[in-house]
Every structure is written in structure tokens, then in C-alpha cells.
Amino acid sequence: MTASAKETHRRTRGFTRVTNDNEANSSSGRSSTSPRKGRWTAKCPPSLKDMVEWSFDHMSINASRTKIHGGSSGIGTFAIQIAKHLGVKVFVTAGSEEKLAACKDLGADVCINYKAEDFVARIKEETDGKGVDVILDNIGASYLQRNLNSLAVDGRLFIIGFMGGVTTEVNLQAMLARRLTIQAAGLRNRSLANKAQIVSEVEKNVWPAVVSGKVKPVIYKTFPLSEAAESHKLMETSSHIGKILLIP
């Protein structure tokens, strides 16, 4: 895109409006296509679940301890790095010593094998009975009460997945006594303006750490698109650490 075309952009909360088709289509530009006059386009989100749902909603402001389920997953490995970048003590769960070692290498402070020990008891032990301030959970129903039992007073549970089901019972009295919050985190049903604001906040507060290399995605294996079925088979084994990528 030419300099003069750039000058005709009008930017509003993460959106760009191209107002001069002739400039955008000039022969000196490096694109054969451009938005129609007046069309609005959004910036591509930094993503990885939009930098882990805008870093667990700003890591709940004053959080000092966070728990990440599935620490060796694609989102988990990224979440560990973001939390450490923000100066938070990180607890993780994973299902093998190899996965826990990978989490440790990324900066996790307390690594718990959920197949071998009770993560609630371990969290209580490590925090002198207080619990953690924030939990990032992709399991859902089967972990709900145990997650709440792991939270400190005023703690917040961020649910981003439902691998363990969507329906369960919960002790509301315990939630009330400790002022706990359950938040389902997601971008899909937000307004475009809200999405644009989140993208801008992530770009400002998290993306510099990605650009500098302090935070980076962990890539386990790549597959050509023609081998998509094989990539799914690998994912189903749950043996991977980090992201599995399909390359067009």
C-alpha cells in the first residue's frame, strides 16, 4: 500500500476504513485487491485465544497466584509465559512428568501431576491454606467444585472449555462466604467494538512481549494440510506439548 493510501485511512478502535480505491489499487502498491470504498475491516487478532482471553482479564488486577489446567497444551504453554511476564506465581496441572518438565522450563513455579495427586490439596499446601487468586480452566463441570475449593477469598475462575462436561452441582454457600466469581471467558458473542478494544489492549500490553521473544508459542509438530487426519490422530493421543499446526 502506498504512503498516500495510508494517509487516507481513518482508524477507529482497531478498525481501518479505506477511503480511496484509486490509491489503494495504484500500480506501486503490493496488493492486487483492496477493500471497496467505505468497507470496514478489522485488525487480525493476535489470538492464541486472544492472548489467553486478554491475559485472564488483566490477571484479575491484583492476582499474585494463578492456576492453569492443561499447562502443556497450546493455550496452557502460552498462558504460563504470559502470567510469568506479568509477575504472577504459576501453578499448573499436567498428566505426565514430561509435560510437567516442559511447564517448568516455561517458568511454572508449582507443577502438579493430576493423575498422581490431588491438585486441591497441593494448592492448599503451597499457599498455606489460602488458595490461588485466578484459575484458568478448560475442563468445566467435572472440575468445577474442586476449582472453587482451590480459590482464595475473592478468587476468580475463568472457564474457557468444557472437556469435562457442561452440567454439575455447586456449593453456592461456599461461594458466597468467600466471594468467589465464575466467569465464562470468550470473544465470539462480543460486539465488534468490544472485540476491537480487546485486540487493541492485547496489542498494547502483551504483543510487545511476543515481538521481543519473551513470550512465544510452543510448536510441537507441523503437518501439511493434506495430512489433517494425521494431525487429529496425534491430538487425540494427548501426547503433544504445545500447538499442532496445519500448513496450507
Description:
With 248 residues, the protein is of the alpha/beta class. Among the domains are: 136 residues, NAD(P)-binding Rossmann-like Domain (Rossmann fold, 3-Layer(aba) Sandwich); 31 residues, no CATH class. It is built from eleven helices and eleven strands. The strands form three sheets. A six-stranded parallel beta sheet has the order 6-5-4-7-8-9, sandwiched between helices. A three-stranded antiparallel beta sheet has the order 1-2-3, with no helix packed on it. The N terminus is likely disordered. Keywords: NADP, Oxidoreductase.
Helix and strand succession? HEEHEHEHEHEHEHEHEHHEHE
**What is the count of β-strands?**
11
- Which sequence of strands runs across the widest sheet? 6-5-4-7-8-9
- Cα gyration radius (Å): 21 Å
Structural class by sheet pairing and helices: alpha/beta
Count of DSSP helices?
Answer: 11
CATH superfamily label of the domain at 49-184: NAD(P)-binding Rossmann-like Domain
Helix content percent band: 25-40%
Distance between the termini: 25 Å
Mean pLDDT: 81
User: What is the general shape?
Assistant: globular
CATH topology of the domain at 49-184: Rossmann fold
CATH hierarchy class name of the domain at 49-184? Alpha Beta
Q: Any idea what the CATH architecture of the domain at 49-184 is?
A: 3-Layer(aba) Sandwich
Assess the beta-strand content as a share of residues: 15-25%
Uncertain spans: 1-42
Main β sheet profile: 6 strands, parallel
Protein name: Quinone oxidoreductase PIG3
Keywords: NADP, Oxidoreductase
Domain Enoyl reductase (ER): 4-246
Region (Disordered): 1-43
